[in-house]
Specification:
Layout (H helix, E strand, L loop, with lengths): L2 E8 L4 H10 L4 E6 L19 E8 L4 H11 L6 E6 L4 H7 L4 E3 L3 E5 L10 E5 L11 H11 L7 E5 L5 H8 L4 E5 L3 H13 L6 E4 L9 E7 L2 H6 L1 H6 L1 E13 L3 H8 L3 E3 L3 E3 L2 E8 L2
Parallel strand pairs: 6-7, 8-9, 8-11, 9-10, 11-12
Antiparallel strand pairs: 1-3, 1-4, 2-3, 5-6, 12-15, 13-15, 14-15
Helix pairs in contact: 4-5
Main location: cytoplasm
InterPro entries: Ribosomal_L11_MeTrfase_PrmA (IPR050078), Ribosomal_PrmA_MeTrfase (IPR004498), SAM-dependent_MTases_sf (IPR029063)
Family: Belongs to the methyltransferase superfamily. PrmA family.
Length: 291
Amino acid sequence: MAWIQIRIDANKETADQISDLLMDIGCPSVTFIDSQNNPVYEPKPGEVILWPETTVIGLFEATHDMQSVVTYLTENMSEPLKYKIEQLEDKDWEREWMDNFHPIKFGERLWICPSWRDIPDPDAVNVLLDPGLAFGTGTHATTSLCLKWLEAQDLSGKTVVDFGCGSGILGIAAIKLGAERVIGIDIDPQALVASRDNAERNGVADQLEVYLPENQPEFKADIIVANILAQPLRELHEIILGFLKPHGAIAMSGILEEQAESVANVYAPYVDLDAIKQEGEWTRVSGITKE
């Protein structure tokens, strides 16, 4: 199906009004984006933070009468309308994404391979991945940092926790690298579905357990990877560290460069920390728990 979009200049005071007006006239999709590259990080649960200069994008079918949209907005907005209408190319967007997701190598022996592509090296440690609706393909620096750390560990016979498991990419990689048991924990039920599906795809479903936080059993693990965000890593440090045996290994990502020190400071009393590792603007904090 072909689509057409209207891009409207807004700010944090007018963006919600424009969104409501677009929805009132049957717009099937409304998106907010930053107009000036001013990032907003870690909103609180249920909180929506808008940028000082925001672009509101309304998406319509290509046959929609866009002049009627402009007229309605002009008549009902509290400020003058500044907009641009663009025709979007008719594409199979799912296929577009699939065509641009290629096998990626991490470290010396680990490959993350889209399940619909050929495996580059059959003798390597290969994880076949279809992320579905859950986060984690290996293309993001935070996932990459964790995969490279896992690839360098001795995981033979170990129990690993994948905290915030998403697609299951880290936990499945850990099993393929020698872990005996992996426990995936996530607040999103879709993540548990994606993790189970990917574990089945890789033939390791009997070694991967997935739980919502309220359902997880009691256990002690040798290793934990947590690719979430800096704020929950700080706030949940007692819970996260409580999963680990003495001298257990931990790696955390989802941490921006300017947040790394604050996360490291929270864990330093309990963990002998490695040097902070960075890829682009993202970092990894890792180490071994103390007695």
